[in-house]
From TrEMBL:
<dbReference type="GO" id="GO:0004644">
    <property type="term" value="F:phosphoribosylglycinamide formyltransferase activity"/>
</dbReference>
<dbReference type="Pfam" id="PF00551">
    <property type="entry name" value="Formyl_trans_N"/>
</dbReference>
<feature type="site" description="Raises pKa of active site His">
    <location>
        <position position="152"/>
    </location>
</feature>
<comment type="similarity">
    <text>Belongs to the GART family.</text>
</comment>
<feature type="domain" description="Formyl transferase N-terminal">
    <location>
        <begin position="9"/>
        <end position="189"/>
    </location>
</feature>
<feature type="binding site">
    <location>
        <begin position="97"/>
        <end position="100"/>
    </location>
    <ligand>
        <name>(6R)-10-formyltetrahydrofolate</name>
    </ligand>
</feature>
<keyword id="KW-0808">Transferase</keyword>
<protein>
    <recommendedName>
        <fullName>Phosphoribosylglycinamide formyltransferase</fullName>
        <ecNumber>2.1.2.2</ecNumber>
    </recommendedName>
</protein>
<comment type="function">
    <text>Catalyzes the transfer of a formyl group from 10-formyltetrahydrofolate to 5-phospho-ribosyl-glycinamide (GAR), producing 5-phospho-ribosyl-N-formylglycinamide (FGAR) and tetrahydrofolate.</text>
</comment>
<feature type="binding site">
    <location>
        <position position="72"/>
    </location>
    <ligand>
        <name>(6R)-10-formyltetrahydrofolate</name>
    </ligand>
</feature>
<feature type="active site" description="Proton donor">
    <location>
        <position position="116"/>
    </location>
</feature>
<dbReference type="InterPro" id="IPR036477">
    <property type="entry name" value="Formyl_transf_N_sf"/>
</dbReference>
<feature type="binding site">
    <location>
        <begin position="18"/>
        <end position="20"/>
    </location>
    <ligand>
        <name>N(1)-(5-phospho-beta-D-ribosyl)glycinamide</name>
    </ligand>
</feature>
<dbReference type="InterPro" id="IPR004607">
    <property type="entry name" value="GART"/>
</dbReference>
<comment type="pathway">
    <text>Purine metabolism; IMP biosynthesis via de novo pathway; N(2)-formyl-N(1)-(5-phospho-D-ribosyl)glycinamide from N(1)-(5-phospho-D-ribosyl)glycinamide (10-formyl THF route): step 1/1.</text>
</comment>
<feature type="binding site">
    <location>
        <position position="114"/>
    </location>
    <ligand>
        <name>(6R)-10-formyltetrahydrofolate</name>
    </ligand>
</feature>
<keyword id="KW-0658">Purine biosynthesis</keyword>
Length: 207
């Protein structure tokens, strides 16, 4: 069986410019990378990330969450159907600004990952760079984790650290973390797609 045939089909969910999606698509161009970005789905029409994905020749789709109103599960069922029609095996959240219901998380348990701009378990939720600066930490960074129903609480696959420098503001710190995100996410996806990192009983098992 060739390496190309063995690559895992990945669906990326985005809501915006898709900078992390681009880093994954670039990594997946390497012939020995264990995953292919097969589909990019946005919950917001016409975002820049969709155009960027098409530039890589990746299939794209939009499932606008607004017509579903407050019925989050109905929206997720539409996304889930799209993922299954495209034979997606791993779901990657890349700037996807929707909180997922336990139904969807359970459907993709052990096969869905997210990147968060902090060294989890520190600074969950939003405004992580501001949280880090206010806390006066010496190190900040980003984490890739398996998605579980509790927000930003899934077991960590990989982390990358950056120093917090004198004179840092949120923007400077965010830029430094983003550079690491673009390296960390492809590395973490490779771990999951190759089976080197697996979610077993709520913990990451390696090997």
């Amino acid at each position: 069986m060739s390496m190309a045939a063995a690559r895992r089909r990945v669906g990326v969910l985005i809501s915006g410019r898709g900078s992390n999606m681009v880093s994954l698509a670039e990594a997946a161009q390497a012939p020995d990378y264990p995953a292919e970005i097969a589909l990019v789905v946005s919950n917001i029409p016409d975002v820049a990330g969709l155009e960027r994905a098409r530039g890589f020749g990746i299939a794209t789709a939009t499932v606008d969450h607004r017509p579903f109103g407050k019925d989050r599960e109905a929206f997720e069922q539409a996304v889930d159907e799209l993922l299954r029609l495209n034979r997606i095996e791993i779901v990657v959240l890349a700037g996807f600004m929707r909180i997922l219901t336990p139904w969807f998380v359970k459907r993709w348990e052990g096969r869905m990952i997210n990147i968060h701009p902090s060294l989890l378990p520190l600074f969950k939720g939003t405004h992580t760079h501001r949280q880090a600066l206010e806390a006066g930490v010496a190190e900040h960074g980003c984490s890739v984790h398996f998605v579980v129903p509790e927000l930003d609480a899934g077991p960590v696959i990989l982390q990358a650290k950056v120093p917090v420098l004198p004179g840092d503001d949120e923007d400077r710190l965010a830029q430094r973390v983003l550079v690491e995100e673009h390296k960390l996410y492809p590395a973490a996806l490779a771990e999951v797609a190759s089976g080197r990192a697996r979610l077993v009983d709520g913990a990451v098992i390696r090997g």
